């Protein structure tokens, strides 16, 4: 019996060792699997970080070092390409190189642009908002023996004609006789003629297009330093002399007098509306 017991004890001891060995192997295998899983997770996280970094680089970093994309807004007469080309002297090869203040200064120096606002948005966007000058009248200047048309805005600033249609516009009158010879674009008409420009701008705001019946407004300087006006109707050969107060009532009065003269069918070449009376000059 003792031999049988010893055999059983040895069997049980062997089985226990076998079980213990299996458990140890399982633990080692599990531990090895955990380590591999941790390594895989670390590698995955590293790849994710690299991928995100690459996306950020391509999405934000690299574009900011490339040529910026310029968007022009508010332009009507100027083309977007024409305005964008004004930034060429800045030699900005990237978004970081673009100087907003310098860009605004360049655009503001153009006689036809009233104001400009430039905004930079990371990584490569530049938005340019321009306000072009609106002509209220057209005049002519002499330079190097040649005569050039120039537009005038409400502030009295002269700027070049970019669209020839303004010369035939029934909403923008032609002014002659202004002492603006040899004055370049961006200059202003003399101060004493500013009220006339303002009056023309006010008349242009009315629904009745009075300038459609006037082909030219002539400025007649006086020896005293003041000036008077001569209006040339578009549908009549009669010249109308008036003082420098140009307003809606004065134009209505002029049209009534012209209608009367045309009905009488007289040989009138000039109508004088100055000094509060009406006088006519015959041919």
Structure in words:
The protein is α/β, with parallel strands linked by helices. It has helices at residues 2-65, 80-85, 100-108, 194-204, 248-264; strands spanning 69-73, 113-121, 125-132, 137-143, 146-152, 158-160, 175-176, 214-221, 227-233, 239-242, 268-272, 279-282. The longest helix is centred in the N-terminal third of the chain and has 64 residues, at 2-65. It is rod-shaped and about 120 Å long. 18% of the residues are buried.
Rg calculated over all Cα atoms: 43 Å
How many beta-strand elements? Answer: 12
How does the major sheet shape up?
6 strands, mixed
Distance between the termini: 162 Å
Number of helices: 5
Derived from helix and strand composition plus strand pairing, the structural class reads alpha/beta
Average pLDDT over all residues: 82
| Strands ordered across the widest β-sheet | 7-8-9-10-11-12
Shape call = rod-shaped
| Low-confidence parts | none
Strand content: 15-25%
H and E string = HEHHEEEEEEHEEEHEE
Q: In percent, how helical is the residue content?
A: 25-40%
Features:
alpha/beta, six-stranded mixed sheet, three-stranded mixed sheet
């Amino acid at each position: 019996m003792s031999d049988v017991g010893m055999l059983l004890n040895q069997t049980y001891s062997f089985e226990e060792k076998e079980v213990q060995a299996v458990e140890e192997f399982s633990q080692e295998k599990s531990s090895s699997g955990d380590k591999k899983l941790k390594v895989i997770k670390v590698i995955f996280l590293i790849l994710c970080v690299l991928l995100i970094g690459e996306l950020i680089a391509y999405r934000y970093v690299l574009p900011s070092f490339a040529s910026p994309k310029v968007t022009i807004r508010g332009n009507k007469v100027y083309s977007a390409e024409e305005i964008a080309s004004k930034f060429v002297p800045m030699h900005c090869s990237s978004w970081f190189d673009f100087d907003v203040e310098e860009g605004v200064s360049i655009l503001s120096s153009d006689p036809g642009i009233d104001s400009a606002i430039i905004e930079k948005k990371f990584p490569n966007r530049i938005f340019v908002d321009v306000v072009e000058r609106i002509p209220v009248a057209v005049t002519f200047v002499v330079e190097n023996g040649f005569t050039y048309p120039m537009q005038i805005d409400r502030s009295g600033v002269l700027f070049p004609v970019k669209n020839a249609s303004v010369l035939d516009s029934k909403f923008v009158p032609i002014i002659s006789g202004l002492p603006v010879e040899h004055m370049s674009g961006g200059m202003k008409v003399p101060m004493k003629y500013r009220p006339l420009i303002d009056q023309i701008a006010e008349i242009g705001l009315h629904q009745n297009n009075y300038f459609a019946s006037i082909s030219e407004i002539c400025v007649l300087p006086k020896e005293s330093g003041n000036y008077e006006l001569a209006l040339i109707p578009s549908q009549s050969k009669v010249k109308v002399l008036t003082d420098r107060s140009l307003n809606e009532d004065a134009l209505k009065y002029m049209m009534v007098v012209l209608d009367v003269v045309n009905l009488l069918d007289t040989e009138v070449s000039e109508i004088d509306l100055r000094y509060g009376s009406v006088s006519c000059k015959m041919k």
